[in-house]
Fold this protein.
Amino acid sequence: MMVHKRIAEITEKIRERSSQSRQEYLKQLEFNFKNSKGRKGLSCGNLVHGFAGCSSDEKELIAEGSQPNIGIISAYNDMLSAHKPYERYPDELRGYAAEMNATVQVAGATPAMCDGVTQGQPGMDLSLLSRDVIALSAGIGLSHDMFDGVVNLGICDKIVPGLLIGNLSFGHYHALFLPGGPMPSGISNEEKSSIRQDFAAGKIGRDELLKGESDSYHSPGTCTFYGTANSNQMLMEIMGLQLPGSSFVNPGTPMRKALNKEGLRVLLENVRERKFDRTIGNIVDEKSIVNGIIGLLATGGSTNHTLHLITIAKAAGIKITWDDFSELSEVIPLICRVYPNGAADVNHFHASGGMAYVMKTLLDTGLLHGDVNTILGKGLERYTADPKLKGDQIVYEDGPTKSINESILRSADEPFHKEGGLKVLKGNIGTAVIKTSAVKSEHHIVEAEAVVFDDQDDLIDAFKAGELDKDFIAVIPFQGPKQKGMPELHKLTPSLTILQKKGFSVGLITDGRMSGASGKVPAAIHVSPEAIEGGLIGRIRTGDKIILNAVEGTLECLEEGINDREQRTVDYVNASHGRQLFNNLRSLISSSEEGAGIL
């Protein structure tokens, strides 16, 4: 089916806007593809240093240079449940490579922060900044000219975007992302949320809270809610950078291992055939970026990708804006209900039809570009198939033609909502993003007085003191990328949700971020310009009348003379937790609308 006229128009607008920068990128990519000598350009001394730690068989293959040597960029650590499965992947892949007459080496490692660990803590100030550090680390790992292709091991929040940005600086390589998969389902997300709210309300103690959290996050694998980590997996699959049906298969299962082997086989085939259109820099083009945005909107994915996709696109010479997200949202329906947008988790989503059905229903209704490059070749139709195990081999069969559970996943013809799950807000306060998919329609408009806090802990203290039992919009400035590094404020969600359940009309406005798992309370986030750059959010005072309107897409302070007020400043104390190391990066970082990055 032909792609929807409006999607085609927006894509063409992006192409025209990006014409010069994209052509410059492709020119460099083609030059590197044709002229890169790889190991053949290394001296004997260079080469020996590169394979000194290998087995004799591996040394022979690498030195000969006629068979592929694949570099692994790994973000493994065993603090992250999602990255714990990657501990054994290099050995596993090394064994598969030997069967396929190839070699594998770990090319480099990147940091891998866990937002769950740092949520509400000083370390969270480094979270977003870690994305660009990961990109730089990946680039260093690939700089040795030892490799013919790349396997990326990373799954969580800033890690996949950082790996992809780093890979795109070596866009002439064939590359692959290998997911680790979600942990099996624990207690329900609604039960977990209820436990958190009971703790915030003082109804239970820390022991009960810790047990509830442990029963939810209980084993290796990604957290099962549809936050940034699992939005990453959706993104890599819908952009054709990992195998069909591979995003949400649990760790340690026969299917997971077979998909890893099949992924390496596909990558080696691409390397050996040297197909230019299957290089990562060619796969990530204007259409695949638009497909990524569409996937985000259709599934109600993480707001963090309104930052990440802009930076990913920029790394490939493509210029996208928040307006592109907003315009696409007008024609892309919301077809998924996965926590925090619903009660189900990603395991239930996968069982209901998962990514294969998402892509089929979007393709069938002309809401996705089908004529794109992927690691499997031209065309996204292959991604509507389901992997099946035949012995220990992967065989793809026709995927689902309808949802198994329409309370979780629906067709694009009969969606949960006719518009996507994200919206851009504009007004005198600035430009912001709101995740509407998790917010009930009766809460999409909040008109109330502002209560201004300079730190999220101040709001929690006010909540505990009973000072917030009223209609209000919490305004938390001085959290932006240049001020702090744009920490997430997910810690506020339980308190604000309790107030909403009491019947109060509440909202949040901040130049910081909220977690990809946040929802229910309307939150205008990523406000740009941020307070430290003179944004009006830094002039708002407690008592000012505010309108947050997610229906009309507006964000206004109604106080006369607000533009004439003196801009406040707030000191940022960063002498702990390594935050002082990043002072220079904060001075270089771009605005939220430009992706909040240094690259």
Remarks:
- The longest strand covers residues 445-452.
- The two ends are 37 Å apart (CA to CA).
- The mean pLDDT is 93.
